[in-house]
Amino acid sequence: MKKLPVLNIKGEKVSDITLNENVFGITPNDTVLYDAIRLTRNAQRQSTASTKTRSEVRGGGRKPWRQKGTGNARQGSIRAPHWVGGGVVFGPTPQKNYKLKMNRKERRLALKSALSYKYQDNELVIVDNFNLADGKTKTAKEALTNLKVNNEKTMIVVDELTDEIILATRNLDNVLLLETDEVNTLDVVSVNRMVITENAVKKLEEVLG
Fold first, then answer.
1. Distance between CA atoms of residues 32 and 116, nearest Å
2. What is the gyration radius of the CA atoms in the chain, in angstroms?
3. Residue 66 pLDDT > 90
4. Are residues 5 and 13 in contact, defined by beta-carbon separation less than 8 angstroms?
5. Which domain holds residue 134?
6. Mind listing the pLDDT tens digit for each residue in 158-180?
7. Cα separation of 166 and 182, whole Å?
8. Strands 13-17 and 175-179
């Protein structure tokens, strides 16, 4: 794999880095990638869809008219499913579990596929560190401008979160700040650029390599 430049937050090159081919240089597996994205999205579903059956709908306690002699069809409740305002027969309940399962090796392969796409598309920006001592949003914007990623949806991956980095980036709409162990396939594929510190790269390679 070719060497990538390591920049500082001023956008100046400070060194080079060779990435692990087993993490950033594999042939992406689109099927596993799709499954991992579906897994994450399903896990985020809150299962709030809810309906009431005939026994749960308000009202309908007594028989609307007597069984025989009226000429009407027999009815037991005004909340039966065929009545307007009646209960729903096979409607959704909040107990539905949308979660899927996926093997650990498949999950790791999906993440490596997503990272490899980022490398292939030149969407990786590696920095020596992302220390923002003053914790100001203005400083974070300047750093992203220097790295030429300020107008795109960007993920910043650091090996350790500090209060200053959180304060500096939390008001930026197009920035997603994560620690190394929070990196997931869905977030990687949903951003345009990925800014990652040198130590975070080493941690990822240690876990996935």
1. 14
2. 27
3. yes
4. yes
5. 4-45+99-208
6. 998 889 999 999 999 899 999 99
7. 15
8. unpaired
